[in-house]
């Protein structure tokens, strides 16, 4: 009787795991997914220029933004969202977009790239940070955002008013990630064919100096994640079709090489993400000719979960309590799975 009573209480208060969900965001690929801190909502963005917020319990879409919704027959815009980041409190969105005008069916030569801050409550623009498409990340406290553009400059912005407060040069253009303490910035180069030396650098945010570099070389880095305790960095990449998923210890970086997690001929190195407790690592890619999300235990590299998809997986995210994983595909589908 006590067990039944506890189950009923959990379901009423929302602590019990819900059902698996299959959501349809749109037609473009879903390139960003973010759970709210309490796990009740999921943010998603698509290349087709749309953002959605979903109620996880019901599976219903509760808010939607289409950057091209104000159209008429003779003049409208075509927009693409390349990246969306959500602040730790889920109150601010950062989006990297481009927009092109279409007049009487003819695309104009007026493409504009921009990075913007949006209010998550109403999708209103808070600030335009720069007129370029950027890689970006929020600091752990949500007070600042870093952007990295083609000019190889890391720019630090305040998220309350969009004011730039600091900048410093970087060696490679690529995805930035803050360390959990907010004092360092990890930047992984996207492409490495034409350059030499390490592709991953760690910068001191205050001085802009390189603290250390990780001696890995790939043709392209396709996944990057830092563990919640900052003790390890997971780096996914490939060289000429050979995939790799390496785990780098930040505490013993001068004593050992990165640890390889993948077996030969595995393609599981895209969209790398740690679970909130740091015990699990999720990655996606081709496995036995099928698009798959694999969740492995970090301690012994044992695979504990697999989820198959019918098309390419473009984004993954853990809920902050670690009980759910969401992944988005290239045909606009989102799957939310209980773990």
Describe the structure.
This protein is mainly β and 339 residues long. Helices cover 4% and strands 53% of the residues. The chain has one helix and 29 strands. It has one helix at 2-13, and strands at 21-24, 30-35, 41-46, 50-55, 61-66, 75-86, 92-103, 106-107, 112-119, 125-130, 135-138, 144-148, 153-158, 164-169, 174-178, 184-189, 200-204, 210-214, 220-226, 232-239, 242-249, 259-260, 270-274, 280-287, 290-297, 303-309, 313-318, 324-329, 333-338. It starts with a helix and ends with a strand.
Helix content: under 10%
Q: Judging from the principal axes of the Cα atoms, what is the shape?
A: globular
Helices and strands, in N-to-C order? HEEEEEEEEEEEEEEEEEEEEEEEEEEEEE
What does the average pLDDT come to? 87
The tally of helices reads: 1
Helix and strand content put the structural class at mainly beta
Which segments are poorly predicted (pLDDT under 50) over 5 or more consecutive residues?
1-16
Using the CA coordinates, give the radius of gyration.
20 Å
Question: Sheet bearing the most strands, described?
Answer: 5 strands, antiparallel
Strand content: over 45%
